[in-house]
Amino acid sequence: MSTARASETRAAWLFISPWVLGFLVFTLYPLIYTGYLSLTDYDVINDPSFVGLDNYHQLVQDPKVRLALTNTFIFAVLSVPTQLVLSFLLALLLNRAGRASGFFRTAFFLPKMTPAVAIGVLLLLLFNGQNGLVNTFLGWFGINGPAWTTDPNWIKPGLVMMSLWTVGASVVILLAALRSVPQELYDASRIDGAGFWRQTRHITIPMVSSAIFFIVIIDTIAAFQSFTEAYTAYFGSGNSTYSNDAALFYAIYLFQQAFRFLHMGYASAMSMLLFVIIMAVTAIQIRVSRGSVYYESEQA
Amino acid sequence: MTSTDTPAPRVPTLAVAPAAPVEEPRGRPPAPARPKLARIVIWALLAVLTVAFVYPFVWLVSASFKPRSEVFDNKLIPDHFTFDNYLSIWHEAPMGLWLMNSVFVTVLATVTVTISSACVAWGFAHFRFKGRDALFGVVLATMMIPGAVTMIPVYLIWDSLGMTGTLTPLWAGNLFGSAFYIFLLRQFFLGLPRELFEAAKLDGANNWQMFTKIALPLTKPALVVTALFEFQASWTDLMKPLIYLRDSDTFTVPRGLKTLLDQFGFGGEWHWELIVTASVITTLPMIVIFFLGQRQFIDGIATTGNKG
């Protein structure tokens, strides 16, 4: 018996060994090393030199860090709720679309397949102030659209609007959740005289709250790390030097500090701060959601 | 059973009946008051929204067939249809090389992560060993760690191995599996009936045979989902190519597209027709893959929200 146990353990570790190795080398060690690097000056060429908390002191005073943080917060606060509302509405409609829902679902999901670089390009083209499709469309209704891609006040709203194009995955997740709500709940409430809105408020939303919560968490983490679309559209790589402060997200500034200016120590301190912020925001969201999120498995 | 095991039965339902139409079973409410009218309104709304979601593609593709002066005219059918952009992009940039690099990286990344994640997931699903649940908790926890936190040391590791500037860092990390896929595949493995493996054991099958001959074939839908997810992630990635690649000859298509944008969009040359064409070339392979694996892809996404 005990030898069988031992051989089973041996086999198990053999199977999981790729992950164990990868975890040690590519997650645990980097986590610790980032912490260490954040206390040093390091330019890759010379050895890291210990500077204590200097990087963190600098971080607090760096106006660009403040700007990048503000930009990122604004983007998250604007994009996460709008994405959620839009995907919920789309899922509600799809849930009622009957046989055609498969077709529409595919159409909504399609943009999710677009490489983020191409989305950055599309952003520049579609939201172009003079002849972009969005302003042309607004023009039909007599609205004089703003210069989305050049006016600092409109760059973030433009990025948020563009981010709505890729809600497809959330729509699919919410639709699956909607489909798993027991029909009897609706039947019973209809007998009680509840209309569509009351059903949505008192049955649908509570019943899919775990999916909503999942999407909010995932989208928030993604928003705090958003990089590619804004970087593609508003920042140059290689010899191009164009940049736009209104689109300077935290991840972009971090990337520049690390791989453009080779301030690896400073960038490490920045990534530690990002880590703390994301953990804190996630913890707050979990806290706030407690009691208002319904999990089917808890009922069993 | 631990709490992480609870959602297990849900996922395998897909594995058993991947072809079953998802629309049918529930969700269609029994005849509301005015079913026809309501449905027409809903379809009309959905149709309008569909246009909003699909039109940017149509616009992009049509713009790629326009001469430079007409790129921004917002017409669906080009006044002067031209194939020149597709020809000149090949002269202006090593487009073929970029495509080959992308295919190379994406295929290797996909194959390695699928195999390694399946191995690890099987290790966690099939065997009982001390510390298993705690260790799996660590797997789940790593999903929460933002990539930015480990980015710099991981770069330094590849740098010390002399791998920066090559395509290796773009895929080789996948040899060690990926937490999300390990989680996903483990769910499927847990759904397989244990009796199957007990019978195989009596027939003298060893662990490796049980894994490759029984478990893997039965989890094919989940393996396809994993492969599709990774293909998408790998094909569309810009961050890693920005960090690791230097020479134009080693670029992947997203990295190449960014370079073209810097050169022809903001470099003062204003060749938007080339940028538009390169965007189509970057996007199209992904769209093709999507339509090939559409069902698995969408069902796979649908299950990821059910982590509960």
From TrEMBL, chain B:
UniProt keyword terms in alphabetical order: Cell membrane, Membrane, Transmembrane, Transmembrane helix, Transport
Gene3D superfamilies to which the protein is assigned, alphabetical: MetI-like
Major site of localization recorded for this protein: membrane
Lineage: Bacteria, Bacillati, Actinomycetota, Actinomycetes, Propionibacteriales
Protein name, as recorded: ABC transporter permease subunit
Species assigned in the record: Nocardioides mesophilus
Domain ABC transmembrane type-1 per the UniProt entry, residue ranges: 99-293
GO biological process terms on file: transmembrane transport
PROSITE patterns in the record: ABC_TM1
Compartment(s) of residence: Cell membrane
Topology versus the membrane: Multi-pass membrane protein
Residue stretches spanning the membrane: 40-61, 97-122, 134-158, 170-189, 210-229, 270-292
Family per similarity comment: Belongs to the binding-protein-dependent transport system permease family.
Cellular compartments per GO CC: plasma membrane
InterPro entries reported in the protein's UniProt record: MetI-like, MetI-like_sf
